[in-house]
Amino acid sequence: MQQESEFANCRLHRKKFSDEMKEIREILQKISELEPNEKVFLVTVVDVKGSSYRLPGARMLISSNDEFFGMISGGCLEADLLERIKQSRSLEKPFVFLYDTTQDESSIFSLNMGCKGIVKVLVEPIYQSSESLIVEALRKSIEKRETQVVATLVGSENNGQIGGRICYNRNEGFSFENLNEEIAQTEALKETIENFFNQKQPQKLETFRLNEAEYEFFIEKFTPPLKLLIFGAGYDALPVVKIAKQLGWTVSVIDHRPAFASKERFPEADEISVVRAENLDAKIFQDENLAVVIMTHNYEQDRIILEKALQSDCFYIGMLGPKRRAEQLLSEMASSAKVKKDKLYSPVGLDLGADTPETIALSIVAEIIAVSKGRSGTNLRNRTGSIYGRY
Question: What secondary structure does DSSP assign to 130-187, as a single string?
């Protein structure tokens, strides 16, 4: 079912570092730029035991000219995979590969990474001319903002099925790729995939039995990227947009002043709108993956925006200004708007001692990340247990 690698040491200079969502966007962009019949390799971490730099679901693309985009470890695994793929460019079928970094560091077989973990990766060829279900699912989650659940076969007694997939979304139902009908129509598998929509964990490994054989699936949930809605197009909003885009977020800027809300001032923003708070459509707030930052520096505009945001599905509302200002704004609102006041963070941002537009922006974005992941934003050295907070 899998091969195993044990090697002594390696060095690698990475092309660039990027956050996970930015990695996915970059990988999809590179796939869209492929020439007809050009082949690249998509590498996915499907299981980790012990310690590892990246978690299951991390991805990397190895191009036809041996460049790579994304990362699956701190460097050594990438270098080894690159060498293996360079030596087997004719590979046409997906395969699973196991890396063991638990060897003693004095061993000639050790990776000498100090992580003490076992990492299982799926390697699969991708062509521009025959887009895979995984690429299609990732695109839909970003472009259509539709949640997708994908189950990939990563272990079986029939290696010819490795890399076969089932994809599910609530608008289109099930679709299949490189799986025989008997496996694809397994009721327990389909039920697990449907139920995964409502679970918090982003991925898991699960084994199913069919006709006395076991099939191991890597099940992932792709949710739409975090969307950031910034109200206020002042100078202090510029670094917030810049940092958020570096993370691969979808960013919109809204201001009632045409001279401020312009593409020239915010070239990286996905959308810019000129509209007064009282004319805002409540629908723009109805997204459970939405974070709202209010920085208009206008009391009345802030009050209207805050009241609408508090009655929406957004998971985070950050507002510039002192705590007493936020309390005053809340006191002027109807009680129905205050039901969800716990998602209001004002003063906005983590306590970093920030005192410049750039550091304040960093503290705001860091707080959004912490809230979205259910974390406190405190020092990792004070945390007990896994720093990743695995499910």
Answer: S--HHHHHHHHHHHS---EEEEEEEEES-GGGTT-EEEEETTTEEEEES--HHHHT-H
